[in-house]
Please model this.
Amino acid sequence: GEDVEQSLFLSVREGDSSVINCTYTDSSSTYLYWYKQEPGAGLQLLTYIFSNMDMKQDQRLTVLLNKKDKHLSLRIADTQTGDSAIYFCAESKRDGSSASKIIFGSGTRLSIRP
Amino acid sequence: KAGVTQTPRYLIKTRGQQVTLSCSPISGHRSVSWYQQTPGQGLQFLFEYFSETQRNKGNFPGRFSGRQFSNSRSEMNVSTLELGDSALYLCASTPTGSSYNEQFFGPGTRLTVL
Model:
């Protein structure tokens, strides 16, 4: 299957940590990504992780990958109002040739409350 | 370096008409992918072009087609428009030889079918 699933909404208080979760079904995925979409804009790659890693940290962002459970999470430390956006989890799959496609989750809308 | 550009940004059509959307990738990027984004279905992969050849295709009816030109610019066409084709159409380009298949997205074309 090609499903990538994530919860639709998350609300956190400004300054707290946000944790956005995602599950995927294809264990052959090579890369997993987190993209951010702000209102009226396209998607922007936030971070990615190779499937043989279990953690990646980049400033306020921490990505955790549990390959056994096919679970990916994105933690945003010290969440700010500018972090309000839709966050998409995605996986990259190659089909045996040089072609690959990105399968996206439905997106999690993160809202920040004061 | 200029980002991915898409034209037009907004489009209103009526059922039964056809539409052509255009995407100019980042200079030097030869891979262009198209996605349809709707509130109900999320982000769905349409097709990917590389060096003027369709390399991958999603599960959309034949009314959706695309092409890529020698300068890597891409167009997608939707014939016999239906109300359900109303969506944000996103184009993304990938650097040649990218090891992690990062996609750079344009701002999208919002198509409304009346």
